[in-house]
Amino acid sequence: MAALLFWSGKYYFYPVGNTSAVSLTRDIPPGVSANLLLLPCGDPRNVLYTVYCESAQMPRKLDFTCCDYDPGILARDSLLFAMIMDGVPQEAMWDIFFHLYLNDRSLSALATQCRRLVACASTLDSWHASSYGKSIRISSEYTLQEIRRLWNLYLETSAPGCHRMQELRRQVDSRREANWRGHKDGVMWSSARSSGPLITHSVLAYSQQFHHYWETGTTSHSREELPHVNPTFLQSRAGEGFHVHYGTDPLVPFHLASYFGNHKTGSFSPSEMVSAARSQFQDWCQAFRARVRSSQTSSPLVVRFLLGDVICIAHALNERNKPPTSCPSPSIPVAPWTAQPTVLSDAEYRDCQAPILFDVIDTSNVSDHVGLLNILLVTVPLLSTTSTWGGVLYTESLLAHRADATTQITSILPADLSAVAMMFGLCPIDALSGFSTICNTHELLTNALSSAPQFHQSITWKRPYSCDPQASRLTGSHIALDLDSEQLAAFLFKVYDRLFAADDAMRVYQVDLTSMQRAWLSPYSRETFAVFLQYLRSKPFAWFSEHRWSQVVMLFLARLGASLKEFPYDNLWRQDLLVQLYRRRTFTPSTFRQTPSSPISRISQWHSIPPIVRIYLTVPSDKFAVLRNPSTASTPPLICVIRANGILECGFQSVDAVFGNIVETGTAAKPAVEVREAPGGLNAGINSSVIVSFVVPTWLLTKAASPDPDALIVDFCMKSTSATVTTFMKTLGLRLAIFSAPLSDTQRVHIVPEDCLPPVPPPTASPIPPSQSDLTIGEQTFTRADLDSIAGSAVVSLTARLDLRDPDSKTKLANGAFPTITQPSPYTMRVSFGNRTQDLFYPLPIIGAQHKARLARKSSYIEVVAPVAMPFPRAWAMESNPFPVVRIQDSRCPMPWNIHRLALDRLPAVETPSPARLHEWLNPHVGSQLSRRDRRSRAEKDTTNLLALMKDTIHCIMVRSTGTQGGAPSRVLALRDEALGEGDTIFFVDKLRYDVSAHTVVCDAFVLTLNEAVVPFIHAPLKSIARKGLESVRIFGDELRAWKQLLPALVERCRASWEHQPNCEYVTRGKIPLETALNAGDPLCACGRGKDIDGMRRNKLWKNIAPYVTRIALSPLFAVSYLEPVIDASTFNSELESSTQAAQTARSLPTSSFDRPASASKEERCNKCSKKGDDLLRCSRCKTVFYCSQGCQRADWMSHKAVCKPGGSERA
Q1: What PANTHER family does the database record attribute to this sequence (predicted)?
Q2: Percent of the chain with pLDDT over 70
Q3: 372 and 288 inside one domain
Q4: Mean pLDDT of 151-179
């Protein structure tokens, strides 16, 4: 396993999700079929809400694969889906899924449903042939067995006279009451996060409802007697018992912002909250049932269930993607602590063609526990590459990895974001865009104002170049990525250092307390690093020769060896690293090439001695008493060690463990063993031994390592961390050894040969060939990356090489001609010789204006070097088009690339009783779009900060259309360019709605572009509207162009009932938007004009213009908190008040109290090392960044010079 083995410790069951529901198709255009992988799935809220948000007019195939390692989750989820399909009454479904206690009716409904399901689930064939099998599929026999086992247990414990129920009732009562008493005076910020912008208004009501739930075990506020414990809360991965997490709250999955925002009096009632949540639950269930019943062959709805750990399941799916080899892969267990193999059903994955590549992969917040690098390594190969967009990956974090939100993501990445994007071919879209349409300001605020250890951050990853149609056309072939061997070795060392810095205690203590606590639970093993190298070897560096790749690894190992003087603790893990590199066929150390001599006596009898062996150690059950002790309940990482006192000590982190016993099945000359798992597996109890195994180099068991190898000791230990030392050293001693045995102990220690894992077939690297046109120059052979020599993991520049093939171009180059080089798009450069052109592809966005050309006139090639346009805000990759819309499949499915889609008609309208009440929360929320840098831009009247200008305009539109600034609402607003004194874009705002899953608001509006074709038809009605009130909104700088680019994205994000026509202007003219200049014409195609216009027709003044408008969904553009500081809790209210004033003064840029001195404020950071302080010095050239010293400024110059432009006259 690439992740460390942790003792399970105290296990918590999560029957209900701890974040609100989201649509998993928010980044897929309507009408396009989708395969979705939920890894893990948790409760079914996201599946239900996704189906609820689907367009009835544009049905499509939806195929969900829901994985979880807790059978209790899958049993409950499948039970609920079956109840929905069977039309079980809503009240019973709510009670069964959310209440700890049940009445007679609900218990009877549960038992009846379980009997039906059990009767259908004797085999996979019988299940799939049942009435449920068309829509609910089971992906493995083991999954069906476990789900069926739990359904049977639900039946047993719901039967009258069950002898276990009395004890279970006592357990539920006592633990529920203890949790209620422990939280009854607490403020539940985690429950209130689903109310988004109204979190401060709702938190007390959420807290009251949470306390009521744990006081009574139900959401009901009636006094009905509930005599039965709910059996579905008593069965989980931990076995039978009440292990429900103490923070469980049935209302968290639901969106209650509209309840709080639209409340008539502001006196919130927990019972009303429950009614609102139950109403949503009913809507979701009805939508699911209607979709199942109406599913056609061409657009079915399928939900598949698969039991297993997320890493194990992803590995199993990846194995299905590999071509058959003569070297079979070892079985993959379904989860740690079990030997049960993951065996996907052939009938499903071969005959029924269950998906093994996915358009969307959602990983919830599992990266908090298994590590983001482990998630990327197993999910990136599972993403579909058949469409232009190349798949979407969602990751989340709930843990506050750093006290500073700007380091929340960078702290969990294995390298700089630019390097991660280049190596994996995925990047967070927010990092390139510089904004997000999903708000987390409420998380920033509550994190600053409370001591809660949670911070919810959702990240959408896409292929970075998928936003660039020009670049997407060039990525059909696998382009070789080149990197200097020394730089690549330095990069690998930097990654290694980041992954395992926590192993060095002194370095951990140098960071903040939150980082220390997370470091103790670091999930990475040396095998993780070996898997990472295996990935690099098979993907971006597949074209490296074996010799060159070995050279890179040796350079890395040399760096690692040189660092041992500074970090000697890493020497403990060197053999673990080497054995994993060899096992993954990534590198063969010299000691592994030689036949081991003078091994221990057992190995000397073998017919053939391999370079690596597996050691099995039987650990007696009583040795785990220290871990089972409730007073020391924890989840320590576990390792194995081989040592010879005073001679050697080698630790191994990749440990497999199974409750059971071991049986020898081979001979002395050809040893083999079989591990037989105890019944109950992890829940086998104190009577079962544990078999742990790990792989070691064979030479370690010879005289080459120790004079007496038979005297070597094998330890099963806890990994030494500050937490384990503090808790267990007194009991276990300095080594933290749970159990030890000499290698010569044939009863406790078994040794067998170990094979390498099967090789990963690399893709074939190939140049980008010339196009079919006769006017091309040659072919691109590779792209080379240059890394920051100081930081070592950031990509500074990219070089694309073009080998000339055209004879005329070769002659011109040889005769001294200079090519013309331009940048047509963010990821391409164009080389031209006369009428011949060639586009070069770059895997990251570049700053083409700062390119350099290298001309090899004799060798006939051209290299174009360009700095990388990352990170934001130092460089803005999307400056030329901040809001790209890409065309999918047949070019009739445009899709906004960085603005999420929404089901506009499904979103509740903002209907706050008074403008003053609305102003209380709407203005601070919309004002929080601005980062602190944006606010400084406004204060300095900077009209070059395009995003800040647009955010102000959006703020203005929202506050004016709702009337929160005083006076009547202005619902017809026209953009007017301040410099040109005119405009051609008019917005008709019908409603303001809650974008509930994005925790923000959205204008349900219509846009009209004035042009010669429509003016004759709308002149009279528009004149009438102007008399009643048409308000101008001034825009500045280059805003007009950006608004024209934004409009197509705003249209496509809410398109739900109409399709683009074959003669769509986007296709015939080959661009989106169609126009960007004032009075040049409509930027939008005509396909959506006059569609979904009920909001216009309801208004007497607007209805005559309705045929000429297009519906849009306009929402705020929030600053990205992991890229730049957004709020300072101490000045938050005053800064937001400034935002209000800006929106109320007709978009004139006001003089602000935030004028900047020449030196920095206490909130500024060094642009290189991120040090804070008021003594930082400003760059004297651009005056936009600060440094703590000349050394930091010099070290950062290679990166900063790409964006450093002359500024004002102030000097640092």
Answers
A1: DEFORMED EPIDERMAL AUTOREGULATORY FACTOR 1 HOMOLOG, DEFORMED EPIDERMAL AUTOREGULATORY FACTOR 1 HOMOLOG SUPPRESSIN
A2: 89
A3: yes
A4: 92
- Dist. CA 161–CA 1157, nearest whole Å: 78
Question: What is the tens place of the pLDDT at every residue in 569-586?
Answer: 788 999 999 999 999 999
Task: Give per-residue pLDDT as tens, 964-981.
Answer: 877 789 999 999 999 998
The mean pLDDT value for 2-20 works out to 90
pLDDT surpasses 50 at 611: yes
Residue 1149, SS3 per DSSP: coil
pLDDT tens per residue across span 991-1031: 999 999 999 999 999 999 998 889 999 999 999 998 888 89
Residue in 823, 773, 825 with CA at minimum distance from that of residue 1072: 825
Question: Rounded distance, CA 414 to CA 422, Å?
Answer: 13
Residue 29 located in a structural domain: no
- What angle, 0 to 180 degrees and rounded to 10, lies between the N-to-C axes of helices 71-86 and 90-98? 170
Residues 43 and 127 in one domain: yes
With a cut of 60, say whether residue 1150 has pLDDT above it. Answer: no
Most confident of 121-125, 512-516, 644-648, 1022-1026: 121-125
> What is the reported pLDDT for 451?
65
pLDDT at 1161 over 70: no
Give the DSSP H/E element, type plus range, for residue 1049: helix 1039-1052
φ/ψ bin of 278: left (φ > 0), alpha (ψ from -120 to 50), beta (otherwise): alpha
pLDDT category, 1140, cuts 50, 70, 90?
very low
Per the CB < 8 A criterion, the answer to whether 514 and 403 are in contact is yes
Residue 1176 has pLDDT above 90, yes or no: no
Confidence of residue 890 (pLDDT cuts 50, 70, 90): low
Amino acid letter, residue 638 = L
Q: Are residues 235 and 315 in the same domain?
A: yes
Q: Is the pLDDT of residue 61 over 70?
A: yes
Range of the domain at 88: 34-162+215-249+284-399
**Residue 793 falls inside a structural domain:** yes
At residue 617, the 3 state secondary structure works out as strand
Question: What is the Cα–Cα distance from 1176 to 1168, expressed in whole angstroms?
Answer: 12
Residues 894 and 963 in one domain: yes
Q: Whole-angstrom Cα distance, residue 844 to residue 878? A: 11
Helix (H) or strand (E) holding 184: none
- Cβ-contact 939, 1155 below 8 angstroms: yes
**pTM of structure:** 0.92
User: How far is the C-alpha of 753 from the C-alpha of 666, rounded, in Å?
Assistant: 11
Q: Which of 831, 855, 880 is the last residue of a domain?
A: 880
Residues 784 and 731 in one domain: no
Give the end of a domain, one of 535, 561, 592: 592
Residues 110 and 130 in one domain: yes
DSSP state of 694: E
Distances (CA, A) of 1129 to 445, 447, 701, 1132, 1137: 7, 9, 59, 5, 14
Are residues 626 and 547 part of one domain? no
Sign of CA dihedral 235, 236, 241, 243: negative
Is residue 172 included in any domain, yes or no?
Answer: no
| C-alpha distances out from residue 932 to 148, 333, 583, 873, 936, Å | 55, 49, 50, 12, 6
Contact of 70 with 681, CB cutoff 8 Å:
no
Q: Is residue 530 part of a domain?
A: yes
d(CA 851, CA 849): 6
Q: Which CATH number covers residue 470?
A: 2.60.40.790
Count of structural domains within the chain: 6
Residues 6+ apart with CB under 8 A from 421: 427, 431, 464, 843, 844, 870
993 beta partners: 909, 1002
Q: Give the pLDDT band (50/70/90) at residue 747.
A: very high
Are 829 and 725 in a shared domain?
A: no
Phi/psi at 787 (5° precision): -100, 155
DSSP 3-state of 295: coil
